[in-house]
Amino acid sequence: MLDQIRQKALKQIEAESDLKNLEAIYRQYLGKKGELTLVLRSLKQMSEKQRKQKGKLANQVKKEIKQALKEKQEKGIKQAKVSKEWIDVTAPGVLPPQGHLNPITLVQRQAEEIFQSMGFSILDGPEIETEYYNFDALNIPENHPARDLWDTFWLKNLDLILRTHTSPMQARYMEKNSPPLRIIVPGRCFRHEATDASHNFQFHQIEGLMVGTNISVTNFKGIIEEFLKKFFSPDVEMRLRPGYFPFVEPGFEIDIKRKDRDWLEIMGAGMVHPNVFKSAGYKPGKWQGFAFGVGIDRLAMLKYGINDIRLFYGNDLRFLRQF
Ligand code: DAH
Questions:
Q1: Catalytic center residues
Q2: From the CB of residue 28, how many other CB atoms can be counted at a distance below 10 Å?
Q3: pLDDT of 144
Q4: How many A from CA of 142 to the centre of ligand 1?
Q5: Cα three-residue angle 102-104-107, rounded to 5 degrees
Protein backbone atom coordinates (compact mmCIF):
# COMPACT_ATOMS: atom_id res chain seq x y z
CA MET A 1 0.00 0.00 0.00
CA LEU A 2 2.65 2.52 1.03
CA ASP A 3 4.83 1.38 -1.79
CA GLN A 4 2.02 1.97 -4.20
CA ILE A 5 1.45 5.45 -2.87
CA ARG A 6 5.12 6.18 -3.17
CA GLN A 7 5.36 4.94 -6.72
CA LYS A 8 2.23 6.71 -7.82
CA ALA A 9 3.26 9.98 -6.21
CA LEU A 10 6.81 9.97 -7.54
CA LYS A 11 5.59 9.14 -11.02
CA GLN A 12 3.04 11.89 -10.90
CA ILE A 13 5.60 14.42 -9.74
CA GLU A 14 8.03 13.29 -12.38
CA ALA A 15 5.43 13.61 -15.11
CA GLU A 16 4.05 16.98 -14.03
CA SER A 17 5.22 19.75 -16.30
CA ASP A 18 3.36 22.64 -14.72
CA LEU A 19 4.83 24.04 -11.54
CA LYS A 20 1.45 25.32 -10.49
CA ASN A 21 0.14 21.76 -10.14
CA LEU A 22 2.76 20.66 -7.61
CA GLU A 23 0.69 22.23 -4.88
CA ALA A 24 -2.26 20.02 -5.80
CA ILE A 25 -0.07 16.94 -5.73
CA TYR A 26 1.12 17.89 -2.30
CA ARG A 27 -2.47 18.16 -1.15
CA GLN A 28 -3.38 14.89 -2.79
CA TYR A 29 -0.85 12.99 -0.66
CA LEU A 30 0.08 15.14 2.26
CA GLY A 31 -2.90 17.45 2.70
CA LYS A 32 -5.40 17.08 5.51
CA LYS A 33 -7.16 14.32 3.68
CA GLY A 34 -4.20 13.27 1.62
CA GLU A 35 -3.64 9.63 0.80
CA LEU A 36 -0.53 9.38 2.90
CA THR A 37 -1.95 11.47 5.69
CA LEU A 38 -4.79 9.01 6.01
CA VAL A 39 -2.35 6.13 6.25
CA LEU A 40 -0.39 7.96 8.90
CA ARG A 41 -3.57 8.69 10.79
CA SER A 42 -4.63 5.05 10.64
CA LEU A 43 -1.46 4.01 12.45
CA LYS A 44 -3.14 4.81 15.75
CA GLN A 45 -5.41 1.87 15.41
CA MET A 46 -2.64 -0.58 14.79
CA SER A 47 -0.76 -2.79 17.16
CA GLU A 48 2.45 -1.39 18.42
CA LYS A 49 4.57 -3.69 16.33
CA GLN A 50 2.72 -2.90 13.17
CA ARG A 51 2.72 0.77 13.99
CA LYS A 52 6.47 0.83 14.41
CA GLN A 53 7.09 -0.98 11.20
CA LYS A 54 4.54 0.84 9.08
CA GLY A 55 5.15 4.17 10.73
CA LYS A 56 8.79 4.09 9.80
CA LEU A 57 7.99 3.29 6.20
CA ALA A 58 5.21 5.89 6.02
CA ASN A 59 7.49 8.61 7.31
CA GLN A 60 10.11 7.52 4.84
CA VAL A 61 7.61 7.80 1.98
CA LYS A 62 6.50 11.20 3.25
CA LYS A 63 10.08 12.38 3.21
CA GLU A 64 10.62 11.08 -0.28
CA ILE A 65 7.49 12.73 -1.68
CA LYS A 66 8.39 16.04 -0.06
CA GLN A 67 11.91 15.81 -1.38
CA ALA A 68 10.70 14.96 -4.87
CA LEU A 69 8.30 17.92 -4.83
CA LYS A 70 11.05 20.24 -3.67
CA GLU A 71 13.48 19.08 -6.32
CA LYS A 72 10.87 19.32 -9.02
CA GLN A 73 10.07 22.85 -8.01
CA GLU A 74 13.68 23.98 -7.94
CA LYS A 75 14.35 22.43 -11.30
CA GLY A 76 11.23 24.00 -12.72
CA ILE A 77 12.14 27.48 -11.52
CA LYS A 78 15.59 27.15 -13.00
CA GLN A 79 14.18 25.99 -16.31
CA ALA A 80 11.66 28.78 -16.42
CA LYS A 81 14.45 31.26 -15.88
CA VAL A 82 16.62 29.73 -18.53
CA SER A 83 13.84 29.66 -21.07
CA LYS A 84 12.93 33.23 -20.24
CA GLU A 85 16.49 34.41 -20.66
CA TRP A 86 17.28 32.33 -23.67
CA ILE A 87 18.14 34.23 -26.79
CA ASP A 88 18.70 32.97 -30.25
CA VAL A 89 22.11 34.34 -31.09
CA THR A 90 21.70 33.26 -34.69
CA ALA A 91 18.49 35.23 -35.21
CA PRO A 92 18.90 38.31 -37.43
CA GLY A 93 19.18 41.54 -35.44
CA VAL A 94 16.54 44.21 -35.22
CA LEU A 95 17.64 47.22 -37.24
CA PRO A 96 17.17 50.37 -35.17
CA PRO A 97 15.63 53.27 -37.05
CA GLN A 98 18.45 55.32 -38.52
CA GLY A 99 18.67 59.07 -38.76
CA HIS A 100 20.03 61.12 -41.63
CA LEU A 101 23.21 63.07 -41.90
CA ASN A 102 22.74 66.76 -42.39
CA PRO A 103 23.80 67.75 -45.92
CA ILE A 104 26.49 69.94 -44.36
CA THR A 105 28.03 66.85 -42.78
CA LEU A 106 27.68 64.87 -46.00
CA VAL A 107 29.41 67.55 -48.04
CA GLN A 108 32.10 68.01 -45.42
CA ARG A 109 32.87 64.29 -45.52
CA GLN A 110 32.92 64.21 -49.31
CA ALA A 111 35.33 67.14 -49.39
CA GLU A 112 37.52 65.58 -46.70
CA GLU A 113 37.78 62.40 -48.70
CA ILE A 114 38.82 64.21 -51.87
CA PHE A 115 41.48 66.31 -50.13
CA GLN A 116 42.70 63.31 -48.20
CA SER A 117 43.23 61.49 -51.47
CA MET A 118 45.56 64.35 -52.43
CA GLY A 119 47.63 64.05 -49.28
CA PHE A 120 45.96 66.67 -47.09
CA SER A 121 45.56 66.11 -43.37
CA ILE A 122 42.31 67.08 -41.68
CA LEU A 123 42.34 69.28 -38.60
CA ASP A 124 39.91 70.79 -36.15
CA GLY A 125 40.22 74.21 -34.64
CA PRO A 126 38.54 76.08 -31.80
CA GLU A 127 35.27 77.86 -32.51
CA ILE A 128 36.04 80.33 -29.76
CA GLU A 129 39.11 82.26 -30.85
CA THR A 130 41.39 85.00 -29.71
CA GLU A 131 41.51 88.24 -31.59
CA TYR A 132 45.14 87.50 -32.27
CA TYR A 133 44.60 84.32 -34.30
CA ASN A 134 41.41 85.48 -35.98
CA PHE A 135 42.94 88.79 -37.09
CA ASP A 136 46.44 89.90 -36.06
CA ALA A 137 48.27 86.72 -37.05
CA LEU A 138 46.51 86.92 -40.40
CA ASN A 139 47.89 90.34 -41.20
CA ILE A 140 44.76 92.19 -40.07
CA PRO A 141 46.04 94.60 -37.39
CA GLU A 142 43.83 96.32 -34.88
CA ASN A 143 42.02 99.34 -36.32
CA HIS A 144 42.74 98.18 -39.84
CA PRO A 145 39.62 98.75 -41.95
CA ALA A 146 39.86 95.16 -43.23
CA ARG A 147 38.46 94.02 -39.89
CA ASP A 148 35.17 95.42 -41.03
CA LEU A 149 34.99 92.63 -43.57
CA TRP A 150 34.14 90.27 -40.73
CA ASP A 151 31.19 91.16 -38.52
CA THR A 152 32.32 89.66 -35.31
CA PHE A 153 30.62 88.24 -32.23
CA TRP A 154 32.54 89.33 -29.16
CA LEU A 155 32.31 87.35 -25.96
CA LYS A 156 31.49 89.85 -23.23
CA ASN A 157 34.30 90.61 -20.79
CA LEU A 158 36.38 87.70 -22.04
CA ASP A 159 38.61 89.17 -24.73
CA LEU A 160 37.52 86.29 -26.95
CA ILE A 161 35.44 86.04 -30.10
CA LEU A 162 33.58 83.44 -32.11
CA ARG A 163 35.82 82.78 -35.10
CA THR A 164 34.59 84.55 -38.21
CA HIS A 165 36.41 82.15 -40.50
CA THR A 166 38.54 78.99 -40.35
CA SER A 167 41.68 80.92 -41.36
CA PRO A 168 42.98 81.26 -37.76
CA MET A 169 43.98 77.61 -37.97
CA GLN A 170 46.55 78.56 -40.61
CA ALA A 171 48.37 80.55 -37.96
CA ARG A 172 47.86 78.03 -35.18
CA TYR A 173 49.10 75.17 -37.31
CA MET A 174 52.13 76.92 -38.78
CA GLU A 175 53.24 78.06 -35.33
CA LYS A 176 53.63 74.44 -34.30
CA ASN A 177 54.58 72.74 -37.56
CA SER A 178 57.22 73.20 -40.21
CA PRO A 179 56.71 72.89 -43.97
CA PRO A 180 56.21 71.08 -46.19
CA LEU A 181 52.60 70.87 -45.14
CA ARG A 182 49.14 70.40 -46.56
CA ILE A 183 46.09 70.64 -44.37
CA ILE A 184 42.41 71.31 -44.52
CA VAL A 185 40.36 72.59 -41.60
CA PRO A 186 36.61 72.13 -41.82
CA GLY A 187 34.51 73.83 -39.19
CA ARG A 188 31.80 76.15 -38.05
CA CYS A 189 32.16 79.91 -38.21
CA PHE A 190 30.05 82.77 -36.94
CA ARG A 191 29.24 86.25 -38.14
CA HIS A 192 27.15 88.94 -36.62
CA GLU A 193 24.93 89.60 -39.57
CA ALA A 194 21.30 89.59 -40.53
CA THR A 195 19.89 86.29 -41.63
CA ASP A 196 18.40 85.74 -45.06
CA ALA A 197 18.28 83.03 -47.71
CA SER A 198 22.01 83.22 -48.37
CA HIS A 199 23.38 84.51 -45.04
CA ASN A 200 23.30 83.01 -41.61
CA PHE A 201 24.97 83.90 -38.32
CA GLN A 202 26.56 80.46 -38.35
CA PHE A 203 27.93 78.62 -41.35
CA HIS A 204 30.74 76.25 -42.27
CA GLN A 205 34.01 76.64 -44.08
CA ILE A 206 36.91 74.51 -45.16
CA GLU A 207 40.23 76.20 -44.86
CA GLY A 208 43.07 74.85 -46.98
CA LEU A 209 46.78 75.47 -46.68
CA MET A 210 49.71 74.08 -48.61
CA VAL A 211 53.24 75.29 -47.97
CA GLY A 212 56.59 74.19 -49.35
CA THR A 213 59.66 75.60 -51.04
CA ASN A 214 58.15 75.79 -54.47
CA ILE A 215 54.37 75.89 -54.18
CA SER A 216 52.86 78.19 -56.80
CA VAL A 217 49.51 79.32 -58.16
CA THR A 218 49.80 76.46 -60.62
CA ASN A 219 49.71 73.97 -57.77
CA PHE A 220 46.72 75.75 -56.35
CA LYS A 221 44.85 75.63 -59.65
CA GLY A 222 45.65 71.95 -60.14
CA ILE A 223 44.49 70.92 -56.71
CA ILE A 224 41.35 73.02 -56.65
CA GLU A 225 40.37 71.97 -60.14
CA GLU A 226 40.76 68.33 -59.13
CA PHE A 227 38.65 68.96 -56.06
CA LEU A 228 35.88 70.69 -58.01
CA LYS A 229 35.79 68.04 -60.71
CA LYS A 230 35.53 65.28 -58.16
CA PHE A 231 33.01 67.13 -56.04
CA PHE A 232 30.72 68.42 -58.81
CA SER A 233 31.46 66.76 -62.12
CA PRO A 234 34.36 66.41 -64.57
CA ASP A 235 32.98 69.11 -66.86
CA VAL A 236 32.97 71.89 -64.26
CA GLU A 237 34.95 74.97 -65.31
CA MET A 238 36.78 77.33 -62.99
CA ARG A 239 38.34 80.77 -63.20
CA LEU A 240 40.41 82.99 -60.94
CA ARG A 241 39.64 86.68 -60.47
CA PRO A 242 41.69 89.10 -58.39
CA GLY A 243 40.31 89.47 -54.87
CA TYR A 244 41.44 91.11 -51.68
CA PHE A 245 42.14 89.23 -48.46
CA PRO A 246 44.75 90.65 -46.09
CA PHE A 247 46.39 87.26 -45.48
CA VAL A 248 47.25 86.53 -49.12
CA GLU A 249 49.19 88.29 -51.84
CA PRO A 250 48.06 88.00 -54.57
CA GLY A 251 44.52 87.08 -53.61
CA PHE A 252 41.83 85.53 -55.76
CA GLU A 253 38.17 84.84 -55.91
CA ILE A 254 37.38 81.52 -57.52
CA ASP A 255 34.31 81.16 -59.72
CA ILE A 256 32.91 77.96 -61.11
CA LYS A 257 30.66 77.28 -64.06
CA ARG A 258 28.62 74.18 -64.48
CA LYS A 259 26.90 73.08 -67.66
CA ASP A 260 24.20 75.53 -68.79
CA ARG A 261 24.62 77.70 -65.73
CA ASP A 262 26.16 81.07 -64.86
CA TRP A 263 29.51 81.72 -63.28
CA LEU A 264 29.30 81.62 -59.50
CA GLU A 265 31.78 82.71 -56.88
CA ILE A 266 32.59 79.90 -54.47
CA MET A 267 35.82 80.58 -52.62
CA GLY A 268 38.56 82.96 -51.65
CA ALA A 269 42.21 82.07 -52.00
CA GLY A 270 45.69 83.33 -52.64
CA MET A 271 49.38 82.96 -51.99
CA VAL A 272 50.14 83.15 -48.27
CA HIS A 273 51.22 86.69 -47.32
CA PRO A 274 54.82 87.03 -46.03
CA ASN A 275 53.48 88.66 -42.86
CA VAL A 276 51.48 85.54 -42.07
CA PHE A 277 54.64 83.42 -42.39
CA LYS A 278 56.44 85.95 -40.23
CA SER A 279 53.81 85.73 -37.46
CA ALA A 280 54.16 81.95 -37.53
CA GLY A 281 57.92 82.27 -37.07
CA TYR A 282 58.92 81.04 -40.53
CA LYS A 283 62.17 82.30 -41.99
CA PRO A 284 61.38 85.14 -44.45
CA GLY A 285 61.70 84.21 -48.11
CA LYS A 286 62.21 80.52 -47.49
CA TRP A 287 58.66 79.24 -47.96
CA GLN A 288 55.76 79.82 -50.22
CA GLY A 289 52.29 78.39 -50.39
CA PHE A 290 48.65 78.90 -51.07
CA ALA A 291 45.60 79.12 -48.85
CA PHE A 292 41.92 78.98 -49.60
CA GLY A 293 38.61 79.18 -47.82
CA VAL A 294 35.43 77.64 -49.18
CA GLY A 295 31.94 77.70 -47.71
CA ILE A 296 30.55 74.22 -47.05
CA ASP A 297 27.01 75.56 -46.97
CA ARG A 298 27.58 77.11 -50.38
CA LEU A 299 28.94 73.85 -51.77
CA ALA A 300 25.96 71.94 -50.37
CA MET A 301 23.46 74.44 -51.76
CA LEU A 302 24.99 74.17 -55.22
CA LYS A 303 25.34 70.42 -55.16
CA TYR A 304 21.82 69.68 -53.98
CA GLY A 305 20.03 72.68 -55.47
CA ILE A 306 19.03 74.16 -52.10
CA ASN A 307 18.01 77.80 -52.22
CA ASP A 308 17.91 78.76 -48.56
CA ILE A 309 20.85 78.35 -46.16
CA ARG A 310 18.50 78.41 -43.18
CA LEU A 311 17.15 74.99 -44.13
CA PHE A 312 20.42 73.40 -42.94
CA TYR A 313 19.82 74.65 -39.41
CA GLY A 314 16.06 74.31 -39.06
CA ASN A 315 15.98 70.60 -38.13
CA ASP A 316 12.92 70.12 -40.28
CA LEU A 317 12.69 66.37 -40.88
CA ARG A 318 10.85 66.87 -44.17
CA PHE A 319 14.03 68.53 -45.39
CA LEU A 320 16.57 66.29 -43.70
CA ARG A 321 14.96 63.03 -44.79
CA GLN A 322 15.78 63.84 -48.38
CA PHE A 323 19.49 63.18 -47.89
N1 DAH B 1 38.78 83.55 -44.60
C2 DAH B 1 38.16 84.13 -45.77
C3 DAH B 1 36.72 84.51 -45.45
O4 DAH B 1 36.14 83.95 -44.60
C5 DAH B 1 38.19 83.16 -46.92
C6 DAH B 1 39.57 82.99 -47.41
C7 DAH B 1 40.05 83.78 -48.43
C8 DAH B 1 40.39 82.05 -46.88
C9 DAH B 1 41.31 83.69 -48.91
C10 DAH B 1 41.70 81.92 -47.34
C11 DAH B 1 42.14 82.75 -48.36
O12 DAH B 1 42.55 81.03 -46.84
O13 DAH B 1 43.40 82.61 -48.84
O14 DAH B 1 36.20 85.36 -46.09
A1: 150, 165, 191, 205, 248, 291
A2: 18
A3: 86
A4: 18
A5: 110
